[in-house]
Amino acid sequence: MISSFMRVVSLVPSLTQTLFDLGLTSNEVVGRTPWCIHPQGEVEQVMVVGGTKTPNLNKILNLNPDLIVMDREENPIDFYRALSREGMNIFVSEVESPTDVPDMLRALGKACNRKSAGEQLALLCEDSMHQIETNVIGPRTVPLIWYKPLMAVSPSKYAGAILSMVGFNVIDTHPNSNGYPEIMPFDFVKHKIDLILLTSEPHKFTLQEGAAIAESIANAGGKAPLVKLIDGEDLTWFGSRTAPAIARLVEFYNNINSTN
What pLDDT score does 137 carry? Predict the structure, then answer.
């Protein structure tokens, strides 16, 4: 049986934050990626063991962790297999919608001996979803995550799903894609897009870039959509951040609707 004091390596930035919110300390979270930047003041004390796509096997093994936290989409399958061959205990999240988060929080809490804290975070997340009230169909929306080439996120992925949940009508411009399609000005015209959301990560968009995109849509024969900046972390950092992100996104949605 694993003792209550654990050594955990996290290769998922949002779950690194979640581990601390579950009550673990920098004495227990012993490895992270450079993208694990929250909570500030805590993660700086944790060793970097490589990136989300390029973790360092030897560094991780030398830390002798009791648990390694990974994500099915974020981390390479080959690295998961390498850790498995070493007999490592691995927790793998698979989250494509906010509705997947409560059960994930319960499972992660149990995996790191914080079952009660995991249950409390799960209940908070469920409550945040139950409080959403959307009585109208929101603006036809495309969230953009990359500039050159232009790339969007579909409603089948977590970022698109959380926007859909709070009321945005996120359009799947390329249903047969991997969920992160390249998109052209003609696609905005074809799908009659009302709103473009420019995320702050992985590409940190500017309003100047948004204006250029809107102009290219007008040049393609469409009506220039409304363009807004949005916090990318609220769209992608699932876990303990999901509940407060939903509250902020509901307010963001309501503000856009009230001014249009």
Answer: 80
